[in-house]
């Protein structure tokens, strides 16, 4: 009826849909779940693996090119710059402020890099 169908016809259609596939009818009409919008886990896993590999290329190149004495600092800095750039791109893709996306991803990325460094200092280990 919300779609402009007369009440009597809407009841008939609803009964027929429920008799045929009640779960499918509710999923499609009330939740908007269809075959086209269903999750594709293999596709998602492959996309994640590909983007992870592509994202790892720049830090790896940085490790190869950075002077040994400064490798840790240079890799951390380049990684943080890349994370900030990706945060800006993601925010812009969502229609949000790129500055907020940059700040959020840079903040949490820096925290994710600082935490293991602090733990290693606490236990007297070194990362080289």
Q: What can you tell me about this protein's structure?
A:
- The chain has 4 helices and no strands.
- By secondary structure, it is mostly helical.
- The chain has 2 domains: 38 residues, no CATH class; 82 residues, no CATH class.
- Helix 2 packs antiparallel against helix 3 and helix 3 packs antiparallel against helix 4.
- The mean pLDDT is 83.
Concise structural overview:
The chain has 128 residues and is mainly α.
List keywords for this structure.
4 helices; 128 residues; 2 domains; mainly alpha
Q: Compute the number of helices.
A: 4
- Approximately how much helix is present in the residues? over 70%
Q: SSE string, helix = H, strand = E?
A: HHHH
Number of domains: 2
Average pLDDT for all residues: 83
The largest sheet, given as strand count, sense and whether it forms a barrel, is: none
Q: How many DSSP-defined strands?
A: 0
Silhouette: elongated
What percent of residues are in strands?
Answer: under 5%
* N- and C-termini, Cα separation: 67 Å
Task: Set out the fold topology.
Layout: H1 7-29, H2 41-65, H3 71-94, H4 98-122
């Amino acid at each position: 009826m919300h779609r402009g169908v007369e009440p009597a016809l809407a009841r008939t259609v609803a009964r027929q849909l429920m008799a045929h596939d009640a779960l499918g009818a509710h999923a499609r009409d009330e939740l908007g779940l269809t075959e086209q919008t269903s999750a594709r886990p293999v596709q998602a896993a492959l996309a994640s693996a590909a983007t992870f590999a592509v994202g790892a290329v720049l830090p790896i190149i940085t490790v190869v090119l950075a002077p040994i004495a400064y490798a840790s600092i240079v890799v951390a800095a380049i990684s943080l710059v890349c994370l900030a750039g990706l945060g800006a791109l993601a925010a812009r893709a969502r229609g949000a402020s790129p500055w907020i996306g940059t700040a959020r991803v840079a903040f949490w990325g820096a925290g994710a890099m600082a935490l293991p460094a602090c733990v290693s200092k606490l236990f007297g280990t070194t990362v080289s």
